Each structure stands twice: as C-alpha cells, then as structure tokens.
From TrEMBL:
This is type I protein arginine methyltransferase. It catalyses: L-arginyl-[protein] + 2 S-adenosyl-L-methionine = N(omega),N(omega)-dimethyl-L-arginyl-[protein] + 2 S-adenosyl-L-homocysteine + 2 H(+); L-arginyl-[protein] + S-adenosyl-L-methionine = N(omega)-methyl-L-arginyl-[protein] + S-adenosyl-L-homocysteine + H(+). One of its GO terms (biological process) is methylation. Its EC number is 2.1.1.319. Keywords: Methyltransferase, S-adenosyl-L-methionine, Transferase. InterPro entries: Arg_MeTrfase, PRMT_dom, SAM-dependent_MTases_sf, Znf_C2H2_sf, Znf_C2H2_type.
Amino acid sequence: MSDSGSATESSVGSIIEDASEPDTTTFKCLFCKEQWSRVPEMFAHCRAEHGFDVESTIKSLGPDIDELTIIKLINYLRYESQRKTDPKSINVDSETLASDKYLQPTLPDDALLFELGDFMPDPDSKVVDYEDYEVIMHRNAPHDTERMHLDGDRDMSYFESYKGAAIHREMIEDHVRTESYRNFIEKHRDLFAGRTVLDVGCGTGILSLFCARAGARKVFAVDNSDIAQRAKQIVAQNGYQEKVEVIRGKVEDFHTQRLIGQEKVDVIISEWMGYGLLFEGMLDSVLRARDLYLKEDGFMVPSHCTLRMVPISDKDWVAQSKGEKFWKDIYGFDFSPMVSGGPLNDRDIGVFDVPEGALCGTACTFYQLDLKHIQVQELDFTAPFSTKLHPGVDSLDGFALWFDTFFLPPGQTQDATTINTANWGKDGKPGLGFSTGPTATPTHWHQAVLLLSEEDRKKEVKGGSTLKGSVTYKKKRRDDRAIDVEITWECEGVQGPVSGKTKRTMT
C-alpha cells in the first residue's frame, strides 16, 4: 500500500546485516541422554541405535495428521522412555494418541517441540485451533498468562470481520492513526534498525512494512484473519518478503510459537485499540504475546494509553442522535417505538463524534495503561474520576469516553497522563501521540457515549460544581471481546446532592 496521504516518502539505504548467530538449540534424544541439535540426525540415531523409526511412524498415522498429533507422539515416546519401555516394542497408532494427556509435555521445556518444523504439516494449510494445547503451553509463560474466554462462533465472526478490504481501507485512511505509527517509526529508526519485530494483528501489513523500511532485521507479521494471505502478497509485491514473514494464526497458538522460534523479539507493535479502547479484547492477545515473546529489555509500540472522559449536556443533540424527530412522523404515522433501537439508547454504548458544544465539563483522565507492565486481569477495573461542570449547566445527559495513545521511546520517564497530545512534539520532547477525543481531529474510533437513564437526565445539577464518581470496565462473562461499562456519579444539585448510575454494554 502506498502511503498516498503523506506529504513525504522515505526510504532506507542498503543495510549490511550481521551474520546470524549459529543455532545452538539442543534437545535430548527420545530414548537416551545424548544431546542433538538437528532433528533429522536425532531421528536417524533413534532408528539405528534404538530400533524405532520416528519418520515412518509419522507417515503411518496417515495423510491427515495434524500438528497436535505429532506433539502427542513426541510426548508419548518420551513417556514410554521414562517407563523404560524397549523402543523396539513400542507400537503407535491413532488410538494410542487419542488421549489429550499427551498434550502435556513429558519433558519440561522440551526444546524438541519447537524444532519439528520439517515434519509438521504445510504451514500454509489451514491452521489447527490449539486451545487444548495452549492451556498447557501457557503454564510456562511468565506472569501467569491467562486465556481468553470466547464462544467459538463469536471468535470466528471477529476474525471474519477483518478479512475484507473495506475495513482495512477505513483504518489506513485514518491518517491520525496510520501516520502516528509511521512518524514514530521513521523518527526513531535507530530503535528498529537491525531489530526483530513482532506485529500482532498485522492486517494488510502496513505497520510491518514501515518497520522493514526503517531497517528491521526481521518482522513476524501475525494475523488470524484471511487478510493474512493478502498481506503476504503485499509484502512480496513491495520486495520485503525476505524480511517480513506473514504468519496466519493466533499469536498464542503453538503453530505461531513454532514459526517464530525460541528467540525473543526486540519490539512488539500492534494497532489493537477498539472503541472505548478495550472493545474487541485484542489487547489481551497483545499482552500474551508480550509475555511469550518480548525480550526483557524490549519495548512496546504504542507504549501507553490513557482513558479519558467528559460529561455531556445537550438535549437537542441527544434527541437527534436517538432519532426521535425522524421516527415521530413517518408519512403521518408515529414510529416512536423504534427510538429504543437506535444507536443511542438505554442499553448499548453508542459510537459518535460528539460536538464540542455538547460537552459540559472539563475532560479528565481516569485510567492509564503502561503496555510494558499491565496485566490482563487489570483490564477489568474500577477507577475514580473527578471533573468540574461548566457554569450554567443544569442537567446531565451522558458521558463521552475516549483514549489517547502514546509512543514513548524506551527509557523515557515522562508521565503519559500529563501529556497534551495536541501540542506534544512541537517542543522537541521525544515521542509522539494522538487523541481520539471530541476536540481532536476525528478518527475512525470516534467516542464511546453512555446515555443516562431518562430519570437521571431529569435531575437538576449545579453549574460550576465538582462532578465525581467511578468508572468500571468489565469483560462480559464468556465473551472477552465485549465489555460492560458502568459509571456512578454525584455532584451538587439545586436542592442538595444528586447522584446516579448508568451501565451500558458494547457487543
């Protein structure tokens, strides 16, 4: 994809890459203590010295064998070896490997499981969903890596929604989004030159190409949608196929772990943000990727995000957004029961560009995410907020929520909550950032709007008073891609304190 919307193009000159380090990974023979560094040689040793032909056994399991079965085979053979079973007497068939207990590695941290690439099914064929195996593999991941809770159809529909061209065009044409990533990468080429990068949810591969153009030594571009095939074509079309490896699969899958290998990456880059920041739950996968693949001194792009909010008071805008006037007169008929099903209602979180005139208080930050350190469980939270209402405000209609995104170079100690994204970078300070708020340049994320109940919208508040309360984000049970957001609030009223609560869902 050509960055046609940018004012300038950049290129990176010839780069002399350092000679690759020799592969020193070793693993134990299946039946004795001898160490090996090449699987074919070890298999030949097993055949000659122990009388067991691993390759013939794999072939005997049939043409439809999948990666999980091969993993089970290795673990089963190691299990029989520990039992002192004579290798010549071991017989293996599909029934033997039916038990899921052989998904559990017999040998802790068995390096052989990561070196079986030449004996696995074609990686371009349909990837197996390794959910059972992921449970076991994640026990070795740092920081108690957790699994997502998803209905199978829900997860499939999520990835299906990203296979078409239209959604990717919308994201690429969002110049605030795309050019923020590009500008950070090009401004800080020294952070990418000669480094290994993992792009989580690569889509068309635009971020991977930015990194490759900036001199990255290797980029793993991972996406579980059909768009991965297009990304592979785009990478080749632009001559970066030697640097950018597109992997179709979930970043947590053993298939992906095998292709990336045991070496950690220097950088993880991802455009994971959803409506209200956390809708769609993609950050969960990014954090799991961090725990699985990122070097201790590696860094995340973006590095930080903040969640912000502001109260809304504008009855005309609310009525227009709910469609009250439209549905009131349909060729002389009153269709007002349709209002409750509109984009702004008493159940769902709406997505709008809120006009500045509808804002009735100062914007405030209520949560910060440090992507290098935050844990998955911290994405469910309750956080306090406090803002001051504008003079003359006499009622509240809702709240607008959005996020600001920051690209801080590693080693920078600047507090993201104190940064004004509108002026950042103009004073020469390192890093970049952008806002998706109602007073910033519009983006495809807009703002998440929570409408108050009709009862709370009738309550009289005192202009100029302090409005405070709490915001709760919580994943919906059994669907980590959906979120419930609840806001409790209180402030001074004309006749004493007033308070309220609103809970809305995005699915």
